[in-house]
Amino acid sequence: MLVDYDHENILEGSRFLLESDCREFCTQRGFTKNQTEISTAFCLKLFDSIDNDLTLPKLISNFQQELIELQSDLTTRCCTIISEYITTTLFQHFSLYKYVATEPRTVLKKQLEETIETLEAPPAFSTGISDKIWAYNYKIKQIDGEVAENDAKRADEVVDLKTDRREVTSQLKNLPISDADNLTIRERIRQMIQASITTQSDLTTKMLAHELGAAQEALFKDVEKVVIPRPSPLGTFPLRPVPSRGAARETRDMNSNIASRMSVSQETTRKSAGKSRGSKR
User: Fold this and answer.
1) pLDDT of residue 31
2) Which helix (H) or strand (E) holds 148?
3) Distance between CA atoms of 167 and 254, rounded to whole angstroms?
4) Strand-pair partners of 106
5) Is 4 helix (H, G, I), strand (E, B) or coil?
6) Which has the higher per-residue pLDDT, 166 or 125?
């Protein structure tokens, strides 16, 4: 990006550098403080006279005229030394000084855009809490986060248990009766009932274990919350009943459905047995 520098600032900076250099030069040559001030003012006067129309011969002519008037304030030695300084600076580098004093410049300046993130406005002091309450709430939120993770896992387990329940219900609905000739009708019914009880018991055990595990986890997390020292402004810890995860309720519903299906299956078996006796007779 092209940028126009402030010409006045550049000119002022160049003048300041020339002034500092002239003061140091005079001090090193043994000038007194007054002689240094007069010599520096003389040098700056010549610098300020530089403009677009000024030429080097004209500057030298001005220098000679000013030097004649300066001899009344400076010794011959001082005049000789300051003449040497002006010759090696303003005269020798006249084109450079004239360019600095008269020509504004346009230079190339790199520009970098950067996005700076700003902080959000802090909340009002009236909403502030003590560090003890903040630390307590932070620990409680950590425990609640763990509870949420455990609930998500339990929800997936409930889905699997529902799938198992549908499979068991289908098996019980289509439970066959043994056709072995060496078994009586009573023994066949007994085998069917045993198979039904075994299948139902396995699923019920899984669902009750799931319910017990969920209740234990919820209880343990509540115990973790209770043992944390609670700040007095928050009052006592609000205890809650252990929530049901749904598995036990589904187990009870499934048991009632299975029992009704078993009664129907037994009634069908008795009727089949009666028909079998009638045909033998």
Assistant:
1) 92
2) helix 131-173
3) 12
4) 4
5) strand
6) 125
